[in-house]
Amino acid sequence: GIFTESDDLACQLVACLQKLVDGAVRPTDGGETSEAASGAIKLAHQFLDHNKIGPIVFITPELGKWSTVGGLGVMVDELATTLAEVLGQEVWVISPYYDRNRKGETGYLQKDEIPWSFSMHVQVGHDKIGFGVYEKVIKGVRLFFIHNGQVFPQPYPDFNAVDGVKFLSALAKASLELMCQVRGIPKMVVTNDWPTGLVPAYARMGHFGDAFKDTTFFHIIHNLDPSYEGRIHANRGEDLAWVHSLPAWILVDENWAQYVLNPSRAALLKCDNWGTVSRSYLDDLCGRGSGQTSALCPLLNNFPTPFAFPNGVPVEARVSRLLRLGFKDHWEAKGAIQTKYFGFQQPDLDIPLFAFIGRITSQKGVHLILDAAENIIKRYNYRIQILVGGMANQRDPYSGRCAQKMWQLRNQFHFAFWADPNEFFSDGPLINIGADFGLMPSAFEPGGIVQHEFFVGGTPVIAFRTGGLKDTVSEFNIETQKGNGFTFEAYNVGDLLYAMERALRVFSDKSKYEHLRKNARASVITCEQVGRAWLGEFCRLRRKIAVTKEKMESLLSALPDWSEKEWRQKQEEGPISPPPTPLPGTQQQQPTPKPSPKTAAEQLSPPTLPVGASLPEDKPPTASSASDLASTPMSAVQMEAPGAEEKPTRGWVARSSVVPEGPGLVPSQSNLAADTMAERGSSAMAAEGVTAPGAPGLLPLKKSVSRLNLNAVRFQYVHPQGNRKPRLVSLSGSFDDWMVRRPMIWDNALQAFSLSMALEPGKYTYKLIIDGDWICNPQEQTEKDSNGNVNNVIVVT
Questions:
Q1: In three state form, how does the secondary structure of 119-145 look?
Q2: What are the pLDDT digits (tens) for 723-768?
Q3: Cys-Cys link to 627, which of 272, 341, 611, 694 (CB 3.0-4.6 A)?
Q4: More confident: 472 or 395
Q5: Are 356 and 389 contacting, i.e. CB atoms less than 8 angstroms apart?
Q6: Please, which residues have CB within 8 angstroms of residue 113's CB and are 6 or more apart in sequence?
């Protein structure tokens, strides 16, 4: 409705109604209260009571500084804090209190003096398990930590099948029991990733009676790669129902080759909607994008309006942290990096510095950096510097190989390459501001936080075009000077080197490079933008009007006081205009005082940064970019593009069609034909000429797009038995003019490498690239082309 499209209008309405209600109970000068409320005031009471969304409850396996392992814990912590402190919502968070956290610390809640509150018991399998509940309000968020050292020994414990199901069941039942114990059944429960997947299942399957019949359950997918679905592999026929007490079909898809209990499946079957951390990743999961389609695609496509919005960062806090480093600009910070990590006595600022910060895992694509390092260092006569900040897990084969390569490169290029895989890297803020380019060659990245950490420091990013990186990192155009970094399409060393070379050409032109840094800084997505978007979706699901706390307080203070009794007395004396008076600012403009000159310290401080970070050497970004998005409450990111005459259509309209079957091809359970592409990604927007400054891919199209007839096709490669499993399998073909290598993902359930794509009808040729070698899949049809090359072939009808 109109209120979901206009934050100002929504706040004005609610402010006027609140003033009416306040006036009905405000004592008059004589100390008396007003008479019985009129019909209008009764209506205002009813509206305001109905519009309360109540506590928004997040249930999460990891949280903030206490138990964060990856981006999930950071995202939930910052989203909850923003909803509470900035947007004025009542927010609860429920999370396990582990026996020891990721750092190996025990009793870590004691640092924040989070006290024990009460105890409770839940039935899990044959056991009645007791839990201690620790509770405290921090930054406006009511935190609950559930403790049982045996059930929750550490984040993501390596359990067997029985103990793994106990972990899932205990977390879900304990969270629901806690809400019953505190007598606060919420209207909105948000579950996060697979460890919380059984929460909506228990609530909806009658395990708690009708307590949660009016509760909306929303499931956030942070990563749905097969290894992150939470799959529990049990022996076929092994009945674990005695542990989870749920029907088998809730957890098990009998059509799968292996018998797998999947909590993500349970969440999608019983929640009211789901969302994820980028629009492109949502499209990939549903089979509408260029990335890997989820094995749960049929369930995902059951929802007409799934939600997506990129992650953000608390800009003010990040800028303050950078300012505390004490460097006046990027160049001074870069000199400090060269002195500390590369042994320079005097900085040489003309040497470009590339940096990676993150985990040393195959997902992050560190091997691409290591394979490219020697080539580019020698090619540029040793005047290139590469820093890799991250600790390697020596027990992991991939990390171990990367660690060996890091030491080799560091010893070979002492002044050009630095890494220490044995130590936790703690200089992230220095790298964020001091590096010339950030490196993010992730094979897949659903959302991503690291790029925004670099953007806050004004550092452009070189990234593989996947998931959330595709939505937030855009190629810098030398002519138009738009874009905040560089991207590469093919997941190989050659394409990464090509992107780095384009970056070096811009770096050699200091004026263009400075402009690129300003673009990067202006493209930061803030936590407030993220909070407004998620609040808009929660309100849409509950049919509420989202309002902003600060704007509401400003409007309420500007409205004149009003008393129903005084108004009635004046009515009896003669006809007067009905209250309340028009909002200030709607008819007259208040004079704006001329700002006084800022001191140097004030110029460096970040008191108001709604969009991006303002570092010392640059001006703050204008409010015409991402703040336009932040100022409007969003409902499933439904916004009308500037100047659009037609209202955007929600979601995709899907229809079924025949999927080609053949050797090596698995028919998908869902084929998509899009009637509209509103709210569906930057590539479609670009085709329509619609742009969203500072928030690519988030505005809907101005007009509908012609019907697409796409079929979801899954490619599979099963490596021969007895042979070593390949490290990397990719697929390239005529559907991309042989320009892109698409990585295929290993699926334990299928015991094969697989890749799903959405293709138009037609004939396509393709090949596999297995550890760098181009081969045909012997399990599939082949034919020769006009040049005599033998390729696999598929006909999509």
A1: EEEEEECCEEEEEEEEEEEECCEEEEE
A2: 888 888 889 999 888 878 888 888 877 788 888 888 889 999 999 9
A3: 611
A4: 472
A5: yes
A6: 136
